[in-house]
Amino acid sequence: MSPSLVPELEVTDTPASLTFYTQVLGFSVVYDRPEEGFAYLRLGSAELMLDQYSLGRTFDTSDAPMTRPFGRGINLQIRVADIAPMLANLAARNYPLHLPVEDRWYRKDNLETGNRQFIVADPDGYLLRFYQDLGERSVQA
Q1: C-alpha dist (Å) from residue 36 to 15, 61, 71, 103, 139
Q2: Residue 84: closest CA among 116, 106, 115, 113
Q3: Exposed/middle/buried for 92, CB within 10 Å: 0-12, 13-18, 19+?
Q4: How far apart are CA 116 and CA 61, in angstroms?
Q5: pLDDT at 81 over 60
Q6: What is the Rg, in whole angstroms, of the alpha carbon atoms belonging to the chain?
Q7: For 43, phi and psi rounded to 5 degrees?
Q8: What are the residues whose beta carbons fall under 8 Å from the beta carbon of 29, sequence distance 6 or more?
Q9: From edge to edge, which strands make up the β-sheet containing 75-79?
Q10: What's residue 57's pLDDT?
Q11: DSSP secondary structure, the chain, as one string
């Protein structure tokens, strides 16, 4: 069954973005159309699309200039089994984190759900929040 929501990120340089997403973060290319600057990616059960601005279909509106960082006001949360391999790849390339690793507990009714998470900006400034599940616990006073 395909996901109900797959974000498509407009990027400035698909090959550079593909290098970041596949070699640094571990996504795989499900399929692509290089002539359009398009790629459909998957990491575990998370899927997203990349589309190079001005090569394929462009959803540009003249009142919204294409300036970095793209996607202001949003971060994409992506669950992974373990964030450590990504962090190692980012550190090996001296790639900065937007938000350092943290363990964060979020209240959900009478429970808290835990995330070990960090945020990194892709080459165009899209914010990606990767997390591994820490389970649930009773609400802490």
Answers
A1: 12, 19, 21, 40, 49
A2: 116
A3: exposed
A4: 37
A5: yes
A6: 17
A7: -140, 110
A8: 18, 22, 39, 40, 41
A9: 75-79, 127-138, 111-121, 99-108
A10: 62
A11: ---S---EEEES-HHHHHIIIIIIS--EEEEEEGGGTEEEEEETTEEEEEEETTTS-----TTS---SSPSTT-EEEEE-S-SHHHHHHHHHTTPPPSEEEEEEEEEETTEEEEEEEEEEE-TT--EEEEEEEEEEEEPP-
For β-strands 8-11 and 46-52, DSSP reports them as parallel
> Which value, to the nearest 10 degrees, does the dihedral of the CA atoms of residues 28, 33, 35, 37 take?
-50
CA 24, CA 70: separation in Å to the nearest integer?
Answer: 20
Residue 6 is predicted with a pLDDT of: 93
Name the token pair of 88.
């190692």
Per-residue pLDDT reduced to its tens digit, 11-50: 999 999 999 999 999 999 999 999 999 999 999 999 999 9
Answer whether 10's CB lies under 8 Å from 58's CB.
yes
What's the token pair of residue 16?
A: 């550079």
Question: Which domains are delineated in the chain?
Answer: 8-57+74-136 (3.10.180.10)
Q: Please state the φ and ψ torsions of residue 40, each to the nearest 5 degrees.
A: -105, 125
